[in-house]
Each structure stands twice: as structure tokens, then as C-alpha cells.
Fold this protein.
Amino acid sequence: MKIVVSAGPTRERIDAVRFITNFSSGKMGYAIAGAAATAGHQVVLVSGPVTIAPPPGVDTIRVESAAEMATAIHSSAADADAIIMAAAVADYRPVKQLEHKMKKTDGNLTIELERTEDILKTLGEQKNPDCILVGFAAETDNLMENAIDKQKRKNLDWIVLNDVSRPGIGFGSDQNAVTLISRDGRIIELDSAAKSVIAAKILEYVLV
Ligand code: CTP
């Protein structure tokens, strides 16, 4: 199968030296890309800026912003058998991105932000019935309710729910524990384990 995986954060530039980002390490997406390559699939990994090395046997496309990630994903999506969006894509970017370094003044600073494209929502709207679409939901409260709502709004075959308020799992950690929810209402709990183990199990369930 051809599997497209996104991973890591995006960076949205404010000026020549500053940007808005988030705490995503890319480890979960990289583990999924690695597990898919090990299982013999053709893997395209679209990665935001991270400090970890890409897994062997994976075609890695490095991007910075949400807009660049959208372009890379859409250009690889047409013949994909599965798309797994593990990236923590910024929902907003500065309206103006200054070429020079902004100088401080005495007063407060307000930076106006505009929405980025919701890549997964676009993929869901254009859904090819032969392509398995998987999203991630990083939640801190009303976990199931928020994840199922996200799954419906984005027309996903599976959503991977991550409770990011639990210590020791999620952002930056080498361990994770997730709940998989299928379009037809199956709920699969994957208990705390190395991200490589969680990645292989996610693929076992979603790629059938
Ligand atoms: N996603 C995306 N494009 C964006 C934002 C998110 O493709 N601009 C994808 C992520 O890769 C992830 C899923 O959508 O698979 C996360 O859903 P989202 O609704 O963005 O979650 P949150 O950012 O937590 O949003 P909310 O504020 O609605 O909880």
C-alpha cells in the first residue's frame, strides 16, 4: 500500500526570527511511518520541523508551515491507500509575516492571526472511498465526545484519541496510550506502551 503520514509541529512565521509553534516532537508520526515501512508499505512522511531522524526506507518531505504541509499532503494524496495525519498542524498563522525583525515598543503587542487550512477536513470533504483516512485528536477533557465529534466533522474512517493531560504519555514522550475509534463505532483501547508498539498496533487495526 502507499501510505502518507504527517508528523511533527508546524511553524508559522511572525517575522525574520520568530514563529508560533507547539510541543509536538514528531515521535508518534515517525513511529507510524517506520512501522509502515517495516511492514513493507511504500511510505511518504510529510514532516514539520523536528530533531529526530527519519526512519529508514521512508520518502521524507520536510516542510515548515501549515500551508507547505497542505501542499505536500495534497500532492501525495491522489494515489494513497491510507493517509494518517499525526501532525500537530497550527490552526492559526499571523496575518502578516514580516521580512525584517520586529522592533519592540513600550506598549503591548497584538498579533492578528488567521485560520490555516484544515488539511484533514479538506481530505475528508474530497474523500476517496478507497483511501483510509485517519486523524488524531489530542484532547484534555470530554475526550470521547470531542474525538467522535472531530471524526464526524472531518469524515474520518478512524480517529486516534490521545489524552494529552495524562503525565508520561503524548507530547515528547517515548510512550503513548491511545483509544482508536472507527467510523462504525468500534472502540479499541491501546494501553501504555512504546510509541513503536502503539504505531504497529494502530496500523494493524486501520489498514484492513
Ligand atoms: N489537522 C489538519 N489541519 C489543521 C489542523 C489539524 O489536518 N490545520 C489534523 C491533525 O493532523 C489531526 C487532527 O486534524 O489529525 C486534529 O484535529 P483538530 O480539530 O485540529 O484538533 P485540534 O487542533 O485539537 O482542534 P480543536 O481546537 O477543534 O480541538
Q: What stands out?
A: The longest helix spans residues 27-38.
